[in-house]
Amino acid sequence: MSFIDTLLQGILLGGLYALFAAGLSLVFGIMRLVNLAHGDLIVLAAFLILLIVSTLGLDPFLAAVVAAPLMFGLGWLLQYYLLNRTLGKDILPPLLVTFGLSIVIQNGLLESFTADSRRISANAMETASVDFGGISAGVMPLVTFVSSVLVIVALNQLIYRTSLGRAFRATSDDVVTATLMGIRPNSIFAIATGTAMMIVTVAALYLGMRANFDPTAGPARLIYAFEAVIIGGLGSLWGTLAGGIILGVAQTVGAAINPEWQILAGHIAFLLVLLFRPRGLFPRAMD
Amino acid sequence: MPILELTAVSKSFGALVVAEDIGFSVEPGEALGIIGPNGAGKSTLFNLINGNYPVASGTICFDGRDVTHQPPMQRCLSGMGRTFQIPQPFERLTVFENLLVAAAFGAQEKESQVTDLCADILVETGLIAKANRPASALTLLERKRMELARALATQPKLLLLDEIAGGLTEGECRQLVATIKRVHQRGVAVIWIEHVLHALTAVVERILVLNFGRVIGIGDPETIMASSVVREIYLGMEV
């Protein structure tokens, strides 16, 4: 029974990692931009939600609803005025700029919020659990997992069923031809990053309610996000969820054997996938 | 007023002159053919007209406006459609989606308002049976048709066709020519680069001959094909 319990916890943890990864995956898929500040943007969004909760006294979920459009705006501006300038044949400028951005965000947060570890209080929900015939699962991990599935369903709808989504895919396929069809790649990219920042807000909500975070918590989140995307295979959002689940299960199984092995076990699972399936488990993109 | 007017357009890549003092105009609804040996600067001329390359000097007027310094996207929105010699489909979109994107963004319409238009174009270009296949699965002929179909979906006033009949069989070529003729008869101006001369002469009213980036001659097909300068340069033989 304890093994099934461990497995369930791991799967549910995978939902959180998939949320970390979905925005990263979207941005990389559309404009081949590796955003090294992704983890820090999640932490930034967590502080934003915390700020809204503490100043307006809102429920964390409502606070996230308020934060999401603000984060969309931030992502839009960031892409349109900064990151679009770095895109081109050379892959180095976006890496350098987002790495710099990561440092700027971390230090900006340190200045404004100090190095103290924070948490977004979710009151009764934090400790509530549901019982499935002997196996109990926390309400919070369950809600996180369901949210990640909903986010991926919504993203797939957006990408495959809407005019904007078709423009995303067309631009991803061939920027030059897309401009000949009257598409403005710069604004398409800005909307894509804005959308990714809304997913980041959802990820930040659960990050903040489930664990402590501080201004330097970003890079570790970025690594989990990268690992989930790569395990799942580039270009497939369901693959990213599967990647998150594999990472989550590896971590909880590792932790069950020895609490010190939690993080290590996740990285080992990632390395094994890289070794045997370097293109990921469910690759879709051929580039 | 001409739909397209080039005045003294020049362009060079380093020491290589690819366009030198090019000037001509195309009337609304006219079909102009462009011929010339390989490397004469025909595709480059299209890249200058649609804005993929900036001109070094000269002006390009489209539909009464100076578009010399406008980006390609803007020229598409004002009614310039283009096909490529090597088809450039959005491979991971279905054939229908390729057209939807072109129609929704190129003609600035809502998707729901252009689905019928896209379906009609697919019927016209003989691709309706492949509508829901990914574009990557198309054959060469189908890719060329889709290239045309997608350009049509942007609802152009001027269509730039780059060697769209090249590499096709005789029968395939005839079908394509019939389609282009129908489009032209609806009042769309066409500029068509083509090596397959009988396909070209079946549609166009005038032919422009290009060599080493210069206009060698322009006129009705009979006169052009009969001119000794053209025969010497284009067909590589003295008469």
UniProtKB/TrEMBL annotation, chain A:
Keywords: Amino-acid transport, Cell membrane, Membrane, Transmembrane, Transmembrane helix, Transport. It is found in: Cell membrane. InterPro entries: ABC_transp_permease, BCAA_transport_permease. GO terms for biological process: amino acid transport. It comes from the Bacteria. It is a multi-pass membrane protein. One of its GO terms (cellular component) is plasma membrane. GO terms for molecular function: transmembrane transporter activity. The keyword Cell membrane applies. The chain crosses the membrane at residues 6-29, 41-58, 64-83, 95-115, 135-159, 188-208, 228-249, 261-278. PANTHER family: AMINO ACID ABC TRANSPORTER PERMEASE PROTEIN (PTHR11795:SF445), BRANCHED-CHAIN AMINO ACID TRANSPORT SYSTEM PERMEASE PROTEIN LIVH (PTHR11795). Belongs to the binding-protein-dependent transport system permease family. LivHM subfamily. This is ABC transporter permease. It comes from Xaviernesmea oryzae.
UniProtKB/TrEMBL annotation, chain B:
The keyword Glycoprotein does not apply. It comes from the Bacteria. PROSITE patterns: ABC_TRANSPORTER_2. Coiled coil: none annotated. GO terms for biological process: D-alanine transmembrane transport; L-alanine transport; L-isoleucine import across plasma membrane; L-valine import across plasma membrane. InterPro entries: AAA+_ATPase, ABC_AA/LPS_Transport, ABC_transporter-like_ATP-bd, P-loop_NTPase. GO terms for cellular component: plasma membrane. Keywords: ATP-binding, Nucleotide-binding, Transport. Pfam families: ABC_tran. The keyword NAD does not apply. GO terms for molecular function: ATP binding; ATP hydrolysis activity; L-isoleucine transmembrane transporter activity; L-phenylalanine transmembrane transporter activity; L-valine transmembrane transporter activity. Residues 4-237 form the ABC transporter domain. This is ABC transporter ATP-binding protein. It comes from Xaviernesmea oryzae.
